[in-house]
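Folding Problem: From Residues to Backbone Shape
Fields: amino acid sequence; protein backbone structure tokens
RECORD BEGINS BELOW THIS LINE
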Amino acid sequence: MRRKQTDRPTPDQSSRRNFLKTSGLAALAAGTSDLAVRAAAAGYVTGSDLLRVGLIGCGGRGAGAALQALQADKNVKLVAMADVFEDRLQIGLASLKEQEEFSDKIDVPSERQFTGFNAYQELIASGVDVVLLATPPQFRPMHLKAAVDAGLHVFAEKPVAVDAPGIRSVLATCEEAKRKGLSVVSGLCLRNSYGFREVVKRIQSGAIGRVTMLQANDYRGSIWIRRRKPEWTDMHWQMRNWYYFTWLSGDFNVEQHVHYLDACAWAMNGRYPVRAIGMGGRQVRTGPEYGNIYDHHSVVYEYDDGAKLFSNTRQMGGCKNNMSAEIVGTKGSATLRERRGGLTVTTGGDTWVYSGEDNNIFQTEHDEMFAGIRSGKPINNGRDRSYSTLLAIMGRMATYTGQEITWEMAMNSREDLSPEKYQWGPAPKVEIALPGVTKFV
């Protein structure tokens, strides 16, 4: 796999970074936690300083995140890109260059195009200020840690990890980012919907009373699949078809259903269940091309006050779809659904329907992230997004093992899905979980 040499920062970049470091140290030495001081030292507050963005993971979601970053701030440029695959990088770059209105904001010469498993390290060292992480979720904890260690602001797509060791790593990294005054924004984008925000605000203020039941629905059809080519090694195949391998995606209840699980956690004001039990399996996606993930999961989570969250998700073609969250309380109920008319709160027979502004939730998360950087008040929502990811992982543990899993078991699990080495050739063995046989680790 071709590897490009990294450019060293220019003298202007180097002096600017040194000034930021020394100014930040001086502020800490003086006993202040005013993030605006450090932001002003970098020139971020006025917007006069260019924010250099690097993209790690150049697939469709990565290219979309890059485009949203370019629209989020008037003085931002995409200056570096990294991917394990050269062709993915070039396809992503070409798709961005097709957006002519942003052509002056894209400056990614060959010397700042990095490929291979270590490409993220080269990009982080290339002189960027903000990184966008859009690789398969397996890589999120290590990429996030490397970026924060380097003093960079981060947008990290969901989920933030695929296993409990990854969650623990991300939680520690987010604490370090908070100490450094850095942004860590997660791609759990339903929280950026103006309508969802209004409904959740009403739930948290007591409009439907004490919440007793939640239902997270994620019924959707089949998605993309990439057939294996004869010349691919096992690792090439699994990386190309990453969605279908638990070590890379976390299974689809973690990779996608996490959105509505997070919405329920949000409605519960950051409270998380104490135990879970569930079932799942492979009814339709049974061939080897589907790796080892399931095609349906059904989990019942229980809170310490007896409230229950019913989580149901499947991916099967030709079936009725439903993506929503239903919340029931002692005084009424609420519905969270993306389409207009699907955001309601019912109390005492009267139904309130959200009729306010619709917004592009993907764009809003970047708008707010860059505004936080400029204002010296960086957004760091990594902690609750990590817990929501663990909520999904906890459900997978329950469906894979057939056992009751407590929150403490999930958080302290020793199951590490990472391969021994990130290299082309052999890949993790494809083992399909069997409830009642597969053990909790």
Observations:
- Confidence is low (pLDDT under 50) at residues 1-43.
- The chain has two domains: 11-190+376-381, 195-357+385-412.
